[in-house]
Amino acid sequence: MPDALIRLLNGFPAGPGVYIYKDASDVIVYIGKAKNLKKRARWYIQNVGKDVKVDSIFEAATSVECTVTESELEALFLEAKLVQMHQPKFNVLLKSGQPFLYLFISATPLPILSIVRNKKKKGSYFGPFLNSSAARRVYDFLIKTFRLKLCKTKCENGCLFYHLGICAGSCRSDFDLAAYVQRLELAKHMLTHGHKVTLQYLKKQIAEHNKLREYERSRELHAYMKAFENVFEELEIGRENLVHVEAGRDMWVVSADKTALYVLREREGALKKRHVFHTLLAEYLFSDAEQIQEYFLSFYSTYSPPSIILTSFDFGKETSLYESFLQQWHQRGRAPTITCPEGGHEAALMRLATVYVQQLEEKRQTYGQALKIFLHLKKAPQTIDCFDISHKQGMFMVGSCVRFSHGQMDKNKIRVFKIKTLEHQDDYAALREVVSRRYKDGLDLPDLIVIDGGKGQLNTVLPFVFDTPCVGLAKREETIFSVDLPQGKKLNPQSYVGQILIALRDYAHHIAISFHRNQESKQWDE
Q: CA–CA separation, 118 vs 378, rounded Å?
């Protein structure tokens, strides 16, 4: 650990507060809170070389600073706000797989409205949005309403989207950049000031254009105003439905082997899985409430809690503190009740939840045997790789490979590839290139390979997989093909095997699409 970090940690005062680790570029990598900053700093120094998380933070960080607060509750609030704002890579929030979305307007000569997950480029950010579907709905609305779509083609008469009134006309030689920027500023005004202020602004603009007898512009602004009213009415309905969803109880249950933390929702007697946190590191087994509290508070900093939260562990003296935090963070009239029930109806519910978790764990641990039977394999696969190709009409072709290991996604084994050997669209050739590059030395092979595609895609990669069992999953009919299943076998999406393979294929597709958009954006910025 750098001497500079030691000196800074040794200078921490006693008392509650928040501490922030930053890297050499002044980017925040971790945010934490403590009842006593001095004791927490000492703990970090003492656990260098003993704790995986501490070593990871210190490897990335070059500086650390702290802010003293009046109380531990205030520290909780400050930590939650800072994590929500900066999304540090070592905080639990990102481990949950639920990063926030931002609407972003770039600062380039040709500004572009887009959806991003991180604040990496210069420009204007709006958010964060906790609900990704709502963020995308607002984005789609702004693109269509203000005609902000920019296309990459050149067409003198304008592309199809231009004639549909969506494309800004960047495809035409007479593209009106000033008008485009003006419309983008109006969208920016809406995002900055909210719908009420924006509607007032539009009414005022309409009145001024009417005075100047600029009736065509008035009609255009009036259409915007009506569209705003409709979309915000829709968003209000969405918020009302969200309140309804939060009825019932949440139950937090630790698996028997302490490697998984389940969040379940009980509603009218029925149980449903909300989320699962996994760990395979012995240092982070969910063995006591102190190790769980970061996951608990991170989850409810993002999601609205129900009125009753049941747990299979006891937060002890911290319970009332967490209840107060949730009440004030979500601006509730009453604080949620957090309890570890010992008897009565709620204890019976927790026993039911524990049995339900056991069943989920048995499924997770026996998925390999189920796949072996379904796919006619010689042995039960424990590691599975899945490949996908993404492009836009042959442009910016990329590939992805994701690994599913022992029942869960292995983030460290995700691979993305730029297609290097092709200048035109050829999905088969692209797939051959990606698979051959992934296994070029014959090492790090999985027990099973899944290809997004049917017979053709499967046959094109077989020479490059070193006799590893390989199957193709055709999306249209959700049908599996392999050497042992040449005629195909239809998947049941409701079965456990079906859910595993479809989820794996869809995640590989998600990674490929994300990388493709990243490469396309870079090319456009250039």
A: 44
Neighbours of 492 (CB within 10 A): 11
Provide mean pLDDT across the span 222-240: 56
Pair type for strands 249-254 and 308-311: parallel
Structure tokens at 417: 């590839």
Among 87-96, 243-252, 493-502, the range with the most confident prediction by mean pLDDT is 493-502
What is the C-alpha separation between 72 and 321, in angstroms, rounded?
A: 8
The tokens of 228 are what?
Answer: 């705003």
Token readout for 163 is: 């004639």
Q: Six-digit token pair at 68?
A: 């003293």
Identify the DSSP state of 149.
B
Domains 3-90 and 249-365 share a fold: no
Residue 345, judged by CB atoms within 10 A of its CB (0-12, 13-18, 19+), counts as exposed
Phi and psi, residue 28, nearest 5°: -70, 125
Residue 93 burial (C-beta neighbours within 10 Å; 0-12, 13-18, 19+):
buried
Question: Residue 522: phi, psi to the nearest 5?
Answer: -60, -45
Q: What is the pTM of this model?
A: 0.49
Per-residue pLDDT reduced to its tens digit, 459-516? 999 999 998 999 999 876 788 999 988 888 888 765 667 767 877 887 787 787 777 7
Residues whose CB falls within 8 Å of the CB of residue 88, separated by 6 or more in sequence, listed in order: 21, 28, 29, 30, 31, 94
Q: Does domain 249-365 have CATH number 3.30.420?
A: yes
Architecture of domain 376-525: 2-Layer Sandwich (3.30)
Residue 381 Cα distances to 215, 346, 446, angstroms: 68, 39, 8
Q: Is there a contact between 28 and 20 (Cβ–Cβ < 8 Å)?
A: yes
225 and 204 in contact (C-beta within 8 Å)? no
Structurally, at CATH architecture level, domain 3-90 sits in 3-Layer(aba) Sandwich (3.40)
Encoding tokens for residue 102? 């931002």
Hey, how many other C-beta atoms are within 10 angstroms of the C-beta on 451? 29
Give the separation between CA 513 and CA 519, rounded to whole angstroms.
10
Query: Which H helix or E strand runs over 363?
Result: helix 344-365
Separation of alpha carbons 67 and 40, rounded Å: 13
Q: What is the DSSP letter of 463?
A: G
Beta strand segments in 81-205, E: 101-106, 113-116, 123-129
Beta bridge partners of residue 33, listed in sequence order: 18
What are the residue boundaries of the structural domains of the chain, listed by start? 3-90, 101-239, 249-365, 376-525
Distances 191 to 141, 188, 309, 514 between C-alpha atoms, Å: 12, 5, 35, 24
